[in-house]
Design a protein that fits this description.
heterodimer, A: 10 helices, globular, B: mainly beta, Immunoglobulin-like, 2 domains
């Protein structure tokens, strides 16, 4: 039986088939994480595509063959954040668009947001730790290593992230925060 | 822990996934990636017009710096030494002739200092050398977001290559060659460089750059047709950085041909073969069922005694790779590409130098 580790070793040597198999295993998770950041299919596909290209280009540099999944997740998160920054920086709204916006977007705050909408409105640093903690099931220690930041910062950001989510979702996540021992 | 917040996981898991589109992306990326990796090893790059900006980020950090660069053993940063130690004979020469701009501007963000060492623009290729000194060892992807370039504040498309070499765990050097396109580059301009670290740190520089003119152009206009591929070599540019051949190709769109596969051999009147400094950049576009490409190849500088060059265009398919295609049921099929090389053969021609 071919293990994931063996596939990684082959992929690093340029085996396209092994690389393709590895990426297929990760694709749905990566796409969903991208979607949480960018909130629409087209942009999520773009982030996913860029992640895949970066992974292909850099696979030979992957140091620990057991960490392919973590490594891909890291590339995805960096790519998504860079994508958002770039997008925020280069999309000026024309006067016509501004005039036709209709209801100001912040009117939405009066409604109850669902989780994805709420995630879209919280800071990236909170979004990332929440995704890693509650979607990827990483431990505080793993997130600390993943993000190269102290465990205390990770805990603080998870607490603040949950609080921000709760606020956006008008209390739906009250229990979450109480039950999450971060 | 996550079982206490099933909603979080469930809501993300419920995001609909366009599996077919993901599969298409993966198949295409793996095929292209295999080709690109091989092509980059040959230090050549050809980008389609639409893909230049998107592909740019992929080039960052690629291992295309010459082996000589990789073998730099000096532990002491010497300003203005990156070009001369890059292994590129043309860059070494212009650096030694004092034609490059030694910048020496440093900026420190969170204990990490980037110094712009040397800049050179010959009207086609812009080269930037920099160093990064850190208090703590940095991971290999630290500057993986790459560099954002602007000319007089304007963003532009470009093709190119570059990468970093770790000299010590806390000191590395980088060199980037790019060829701007779709922008008229003035003779003097302000080059904007923006580096981004892994944690979102940014180092921004604005460097006044003056184009090094003085190149001599020899019109060649050599046109050949071989196996469905049209090739025109338009000019030879002679400057201290070397000899640059500019060429265009045209081929049927479905021929699985790319202008990036065209290479040149140049032999001087004494029979010495010139070394390629850079396979250069290029751009291609598809129009009316044909693929048009424009590219250039830069050879090492020659001395004045050389009066004639014999140039032989040839097809180099070493960068062409195969791939694997998955059908809807997950079955895989190998895709191999082996065009008929015999059909695509070009003739040698001679260029008299001024």
């Amino acid at each position: 039986m071919v293990t994931k580790r063996m596939l990684v070793v082959r992929a690093k040597k340029g085996d396209a088939e092994a690389l393709q198999t590895l990426i297929h295993e990760e694709k749905e998770k990566l796409y969903k994480m991208a979607y949480v950041y960018v909130q629409n299919e087209d942009d999520a596909l773009e982030v996913f595509q860029e992640t895949v290209y970066k992974a292909i280009k850099s696979i030979a540099k992957l140091k620990n063959n057991d960490y392919f999944s973590t490594w891909m997740t890291r590339i995805l998160i960096n790519t998504a954040i860079a994508f958002l920054k770039k997008k925020q920086g280069i999309v000026p709204l024309s006067q016509e668009v501004l005039e036709n916006l209709g209801e100001p977007w912040h009117m939405k705050k009066e409604e109850q947001l669902d989780l994805l909408e709420a995630m879209d409105e919280i800071e990236e640093k909170y979004k990332t730790v929440l995704l890693l903690r509650f979607y990827e099931d990483y431990s505080i220690s793993q997130i600390s290593k993943f993000l190269h930041c102290p465990e205390g910062t990770v805990k603080t950001n998870i607490r603040r992230g949950l609080a921000a989510l709760k606020k956006k979702m008008k209390g739906v996540y009250k229990d979450v925060r109480q039950n999450s021992h971060v | 822990m996550s079982d206490k917040i099933p909603m979080f996981k469930k809501e993300i898991d419920d995001i609909p996934v366009p599996v077919d589109k993901l599969d298409d992306i993966i198949t295409k990326a793996v095929q292209e990636g295999v080709q690109k990796r091989k092509r980059l090893n040959g230090n050549k790059l050809l980008l389609s017009v639409g893909a230049i900006a998107a592909t740019l980020a992929l080039l960052i950090g690629s291992a295309t710096v010459s082996p000589v660069m990789a073998n730099i053993v000096s532990q002491i940063p010497v300003l203005g030494s990156i070009f001369s130690e890059s292994g590129d004979p043309g860059l070494k020469r212009v650096s030694e002739l004092g034609l490059t701009q030694v910048v020496g501007e440093s900026k420190t963000v969170r204990g990490n200092t980037i110094t712009i060492d040397e800049v050179f623009f010959d009207g086609t290729r812009l080269t930037v050398g920099y160093s990064l000194t850190s208090e703590e060892p940095l991971g290999e992807f630290y500057l993986d977001q790459g560099i954002d370039f602007t000319i007089d504040g304007k963003k532009f498309s470009f093709g190119g290559n570059g990468g970093e070499t770790e000299i010590t765990p806390t000191y590395r050097r980088g060199i980037y060659n790019i060829e701007p396109s779709g922008i008229d580059v003035p003779e003097e301009f302000k080059l904007g460089l923006s580096f981004e670290g892994k944690g979102g740190e940014r180092w921004k520089f604005f460097i006044p750059v003056k184009t090094q003119t003085g190149a001599e152009f020899v019109t060649i206009d050599e046109t050949q047709q071989a196996g469905g591929v049209g090739l025109n070599i338009s000019t030879l540019e002679i400057s201290p950085v070397g000899l640059r051949l500019t060429y265009n190709t045209v081929a049927e769109e479905n021929e699985f041909f790319s202008g990036a596969y065209i290479k040149f051999k140049a032999v001087d009147s004494s029979g010495n073969e010139l070394t390629i400094s850079s396979e250069g950049g290029g751009h291609s576009k598809n129009e009316n069922g044909k693929i048009y490409a424009k590219g250039n190849s830069l050879f090492e500088p020659i001395d004045e005694s050389v009066t004639k060059l014999t140039i032989t265009p040839y097809l180099d398919l070493s960068s062409v790779g195969g791939g694997v295609e998955f059908d809807g049921a997950g079955n895989e099929t190998s895709i191999d590409f082996e065009p008929n090389k015999e059909e695509i053969k070009f003739d040698s021609f001679t260029v008299t130098l001024p």
